Amino acid sequence: MKNARSKAPVAKQIVRCAIYCRKSTEDGLEQEFNSLDAQREAGEAYIASQKHEGWMALPTIYSDGGFTGANTDRPAMQRLLEDIRGGRIDAVVTYKVDRLSRSLLDFARLMELFEEHGVSFVSVTQNFDTRTSMGRLTLNVLMSFGQFEREIIAERVRDKIAASKRKGKFMGGTPVLGYDICPTTHRLQINAQEANTVRHIFRRFAEVGSGLTIARELNSKGSTTKSWVTRDGTLRPGKPWNASLIYRILSNRTYLGETIHKGESYPGEHEPIVTQSMWDAAHATLSANPRREQRSHESVPALLRGIIRCGHCDRAMTSTYTRKGGRTYRYYVCTGATKSGYDSCPVKTVAAGDIEQAVLTQVRAICKSPEMIAQTCCAISRLKEEQEHDVAVSQWEAVDALKQFDPVWEELHPVEQRRVVGALVERVTVMADGLDVRLRTDGIHSVVSALKDTLEEHNERSRRQ
Predict the structure, then answer these.
(1) Which CATH class is domain 15-150?
(2) Do the beta carbons of residue 166 and residue 266 sit within 8 Å?
(3) CA gap 352, 332 in Å, rounded
(4) Which end of the chain has the lower number of beta carbons within 10 A, N or C?
(5) CA 275/CA 287 separation, integer angstroms
(6) Domain ranges of the chain
(7) Is residue 330 a contact partner of residue 300, using CB atoms and an 8 Å limit?
(8) CATH fold label, 179-213+242-288
(9) What secondary structure does DSSP assign to 407-444, as a single string?
(10) For residue 118, what are the CA distances in angstroms to 131, 237, 268?
(11) What is residue 70's predicted lDDT score, i.e. its pLDDT?
């Protein structure tokens, strides 16, 4: 007779099950056996039926009485999630799915957390078990709806922001220089000291046309960008100025009392800091003298770009060049001739070097003339008497810079040379038989500022030599 061999029983892996219970109201919770007790009893019975699979109910009670399922801000729920993250739970059992959450978005987020930590989810009365293929399919469908709900919520938020901005409301974010956020109304309110700095930037740029010059002046005075405190009390200190920050101030229509959304401007609820005339003056200078970063990529400089016109066609002339025999030949071309034919314009093209030298000769003579020096001194004195602007250049510095125009000019960057010419020359009109140069009467501040900075560098190098 053969001896029957008995097989050793295979040890089942223990599945630690947490039972979560919830009741929306507190009605009846004072009873000896209430709804929460009934839910837990049903969960324990289900876990007992799965004992052969190694299931074991944890003794910890996760029950929320009197809490809505619309969110997860529940004490027992938070303890449950903390234990899941701590690796102390393998499965979560509820009486119904809505006991865990009534929000599809929250439910999808909870399922993502469960999956991340290897926790399965079971609904006792709805035959929902993420361990089965049907349960996983149902879960994927629910997750898809959760993603849909997330996108709908994001769309609603974007629509609300757009509608609020169209009404001129401030929708949060980093406050800009010149404004603080009112703690009660959450609207922008003017910071008087910072607003003076903003106005100074606009006025000064209309004079000098250089963001770098303004940044240097502000830094020399110890001025910084916006310093503010976050809601959690963290201090965000201001930073030193640079040219980019100056141009950012100049392009921010918030200072006109407007709000911007996707390129569209709307009247804001806050008070403006600059007037329309101040804005227009600064932007007229900005248009005439584009930023260095936008111009420094030009392979061939054009000193008269933007100010030279054809006298016959009354059209702008653009710079162009040709290369021949290893040399570059630069020209200014009438746009009327390029569009209507070269035989329609007697001017057509002019050599850039010749006409730039002719204009430069006049500029040099003007800058060194006694009349210009006298007018400059009077202008600086008048500004000081008005006490409205900070005058960064003294009379003696202006006179010294103008008298030493020639050596300083040669050391200027081509972009700075163009800025000086653009500040002094309003228009250069080219005719078939001559040249007409129309000068500006208000551009001397920009010239002196540019020459002064370069003169200091020139004198420093001379001393070293």
Answers:
(1) alpha beta
(2) yes
(3) 6
(4) N
(5) 18
(6) 15-150, 179-213+242-288, 308-464
(7) yes
(8) Hect, E3 ligase catalytic domain fold (3.90.1750)
(9) HHHHHS-HHHHHHHHHHHEEEEEEETTEEEEEEPSS-H
(10) 11, 45, 51
(11) 79
Specify the 3-state DSSP secondary structure of 198. helix
pLDDT at 294: 36
- Going by the DSSP 8-state scheme, the letter that residue 165 receives in this structure is H
| pLDDT lower than 50: segments of the chain | 1-2, 4, 292-298, 387, 389, 391
Question: What pLDDT, on the 0 to 100 scale, is given for residue 91?
Answer: 94
Of 218, 284, 279, which is closest to residue 246 (Cα–Cα)? Answer: 218
Residue written as tokens 């507190």? 26
Please state, in angstroms and rounded to a whole number, the distance separating the CA atoms of residues 114 and 129: 13
Q: How far apart are CA 22 and CA 107, in angstroms?
A: 15
Strands 179-181 and 188-190: antiparallel
Q: Which pLDDT score, from 0 to 100, does residue 407 have?
A: 63
- For the record, the structure tokens of 245 come out as 């920050």
DSSP category for residue 289: S
Nearest to 187 by CA among 196, 179, 198: 179
68-104 burial string, b = 16+ CB within 10 Å, else e? ebeebebebbebbbebbeeeebbbbbbbebebbbebb
